[in-house]
Design a protein that fits this description.
CATH architecture of the largest domain: Alpha-Beta Complex
Bound molecules: NADP nicotinamide-adenine-dinucleotide phosphate
Distance between the termini: 44 Å
CATH topology of the largest domain: Quinone Oxidoreductase, Chain A, domain 1
Helix content: 25-40%
CATH class of the largest domain: Alpha Beta
Shape: globular
Radius of gyration: 26 Å
Number of domains: 3
Structural class: alpha/beta
Amino acid sequence: MKTHLQILIIAFWFLFTDAGWAQTPNPSPAQRMKAIVYHEYGSPDVLRLEEVDKPVPLDNQLLIRVRAVSVNPLDWHFMEGTPYLGRPLAFGFLKPTVERLGVDYAGTVEAVGKNITDFKPGDEVFGNHFGAFAEYVVASDKGMALKPANFTFEQAASLPVAALTALQALRDYGKIQPGQKVLINGASGGVGTFAVQIAKTFGAEVTGVCSGRNLELVRSLGADHVIDYTKEDFTQRAERYDLILDNVGNQPLSGFRRVLNPRGIYVGIGGGGVNDSRWTGPLVGVIKMLITKRFTSQELRMMLAEINRKDLTILADLIQAGKMKPVIDKTYPFSQLPEAMRYLEEGHARGKIVLTVGDNIEPLAPGANRAAGPAGTPSPLLIALELIVIPAGVLIVPIIAAFVLNRRFKRGNPDKRGFRWGYYFSIMSIVAGLVLGLLLEAGPTALIVCGLIYALLAWFFAQRRRWAWITLTILSFNPVVWIINAIYLWRRWAEGPVATPAI
Ligand SMILES: NC(=O)c1ccc[n+]([C@@H]2O[C@H](COP(=O)([O-])OP(=O)(O)OC[C@H]3O[C@@H](n4cnc5c(N)ncnc54)[C@H](OP(=O)(O)O)[C@@H]3O)[C@@H](O)[C@H]2O)c1
């Protein structure tokens, strides 16, 4: 089980390194292949089919001739450079640092490195590796498995990210048990269609939430109950669930908690359509969850799927046993990748969208539906400004204000030591009160009440009321503040009058 911290570390590893993308440099320039490349962020129109070096496997890698790929929301996040916060941190600020795309593939092993023993040339495999939108991909044997014999390449390519996410969300994060009531929000999408079937194999009573046109599909996958979200808000129901898998992230956390049993588990996998969370992605949701979970007996978890052969093999076995089948909405030729991305971006795919990679790859077809797709991307300058202004507003301005107030105090009290941290702590307490008010999701009243309570406590703290200092320290919910206040402020308290924050 991964903690939030581990998830963030994995996400940062994923974002900050190009390990996953690394293709082995090709010593022979004569060997070329076709691959999807993008040199700038934007709509699917930025995708290009270009000739690049054909990769050569290292000793612990395999070379795979790709036969089919599937598209995931992850692909359009990279294509668009969203969330924008990820650009300076990882994707590349003005243009993509790594210009290749795609993760899910199925194909035939063409060559193996000398340390590979479990696979041989000619094996049909499926797996996950960055840069999969190409004729060939090199990958380690850790993120692939043998393709189920009764499966086409297209069916196998639909599995890795979506089905692994569904499996790990329910089994590892959700601790699913037979007989439990499980609600799957977004039951008709890539992850959802696998999740409904996997939850049924665990013996759960499954409720799927989707739009009216998909009710029959979700029922046919085994769901015991279906809810049409266009007609009914499931968070207002009397029914309570033991486990909620949220693939959409369209409801406030308080709504999910309302229909979750007191000891129930909520698993969020991200969510947010192409025009949602473009700035910070799931970061705000994760912070909300980290704070809220301190106040509740319910388990609130976010997850990041981990690609591994063991779980890919479990999925293949489920399919061989006839317990699960992929739902494939559309199958495109590889030359229609832009069209496939556009369709996925609309956020209403029924199951998975796959592409066949034939022997002769045609030039990319111009999209038939160019009007669809994301809202206009703001200029890099605006993105830079926002990314600077927001952290500055929240972090730097209080530091400057604390210095200014401290200087003013020292001018009036030249014989006393300043109290910079005290000022900073007071200001940040009020900010924390406002954030808490926002997180309670109870409208402007909660915001005003929480802000006022914290401001009042900060004022009493400035009047040297020990109870206010202790209360505010505890209510900061911040272990760093607890330690600093315990060591630093306690000592300073004994020294003499505290600077009175002018707030
Ligand atoms: N954390 C991870 O490791 C991980 C892994 C994979 C995916 N994800 C994330 O999980 C999310 C889902 O991925 P996916 O591949 O399943 O996406 P997808 O294939 O695009 O599915 C989207 C589905 O959401 C449904 N939907 C849209 N609005 C809805 C609403 N208001 N209520 C209920 N359902 C709604 C749509 O159903 P209708 O057509 O019926 O509206 C559609 O079937 C994405 O945000 C993706 O980034 C995270």
